[in-house]
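Box 4.2: Ligand-aware structure prediction
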Amino acid sequence: MQNALWQARVQIVVNRERSLKAGRGLLLALALGTDSAAYAQSNPVSRVAPLPRDDAHEVAPEAATGKSQKSVVYASRTMAVTANPYSTRAAQEILGAGGSAMDAAIAAEMVLNLVEPQSSGLGGGTFLLHYDAATKRTSAFDGRETAPAAAKADRFLQADGQAMRFIDAVQSGMAVGTPGLLRALEMAHRKYGRLPWVKLFAPAISLAENGFVVSPRLNKLLEGDPALRRNAAARAYFYDADGHARAVGSLLKNPLFADLLKRIARQGAQVFYRGAVARDIAAAVAARVPPGDLTAADLANYQAREREAVCGKYRVYTICGMPPPGSGTTTILAMLGMLERFDLRALKPNSVEAVHLFAEAGSLAYADRDRYVADPDFVPVPVAGLIDPAYLRRRGALINPARSMGHARAGLPPGASTAYAGDSLSELHGTSHLSIIDAAGNAVAMTSTIESQFGARILVHGFLLNNEMTDFSWIAQEEGRPVANRIEPGKRPRSSMTPTFVFDANNKLMLVMGAPGGNAIPNFVAKALIGVLDWGLDVQQAVALPNMGSRNRGTDLERGTVLDGEADALRAMGHTINFFDFPSGLHGIMVTPRGLAGGSDPRREGEALGEGSVISGH
Ligand code: DON
């Protein structure tokens, strides 16, 4: 019910605020439609409890806040799918003004920073994939955070050599890495922006000045987060005088953020990376107890990277994504490569057989990921070997259709060095994914993150700082060998973010996809791809499929889905089962004969919105 009321209120405020022109054939298909009220009654939002964050097996990087029913949205010209209606509308506003997918992504991300502060923004990092329709070229932009120059390998170890409690590490100043998002957006805009930079900030500035309506998800996450209240700036902004989270439906203004955005809009990213803002960021990190070591010089020295996208084949399709330090694309290509020998199309979605094979492929692929993938500027990563078809055939032969192998050991892909040890510390690892296609057919798949929900819980100039340093391995050596993803000055922590493009047999872009979810992201994305490519589902059905898979520490099933009934059969095959809520946030666009189809994850508050007169949905 709360969802429906919030949606209605957002609608009223947006109608008042928005500059979307009438008569453009805009399809306003509300992703959280009226059926969410009925759904909420049968699935009370009280599924969400405050988070215990210390047990890897009980922790999702962002808590679940219930589900709503959503429908696929079709449109002929453009499509934007983001994690929040405000940001989707900002993207459409920019597309409607003649902006490119890249322009729209920047406007949407700035709005997300404001209205979904728990997940992403200026204080964090991003992986951004861009498809240029004219040249048919895919570019990969890396705005991953870097370790401060003063970082040492033992930063998350206690005096006795044991790892800190995860929640203590996340909330320490040591968690904060050098933010990379804005530099990456600036770099990508120089290449693929069509509208002037200054215009892209207008929607977020207006919302920050005039206020946005607090959503049920933001309210729940705020209410359940004691750590955020301990930061004075965050407490003053996010909570009332009694320490209660800003109410669902209330209007929240962020004048400090509006002011910062105005300066970035006029003067560029340097306003953030040099001068007073950089110094304020460093000071806020130093003021945290225990303090961190991020300096203004780290910010001044930060560089985004354009990298060669990693592409590989699955059946007739070509799948492209981020290279290292991204681990997602090599992981999904490895899973799919190992699964190719099975006829997944003959298996039913959600069947025990399908979950079994998917999980086994996950165990094998994650074992390699954990051992080999790290920042390629510091460690040789055998990218080609990890996705080599012959290697994957050999590795896939280890999958027994009748019996789980349990924990998988890393393989030795062609070109791999044996000098590095596996990373055995589980990642306990807020993140957001958006997908946009513009009128010219250019596309952006962008996943952005501040790591845990509300990041390090430090608010500066109205935005939150990341805790991305906890994405490193906390242990530098294992088995007498260095861990590839150990902490080193200036290094980027390995990421699971998996923004993805799929091309059809004629090399036409057919799918734009991605998700938040920490190290479960590759499983979420691989599930959605199999849903579309093998099971013939539409993009909405594919993102809504129950989440499952293995990160090589047991087999994960999404609680409260049909998978509940499969646990026993899977256990009988040797699987150790973990149940999770898995608020995945998969947001995708499929290019179909009927037009662009947008799908938004029922587990979050996202919305797909298109322009162009194709009428339909189910
Ligand atoms: O880059 C990564 O792999 C993680 N920092 C992503 C964290 C995440 O997806 C949190 N999601 N809800």
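In the box above, the bound molecule is 6-diazenyl-5-OXO-L-norleucine. Residues 13-59 have pLDDT under 50 and may be disordered.
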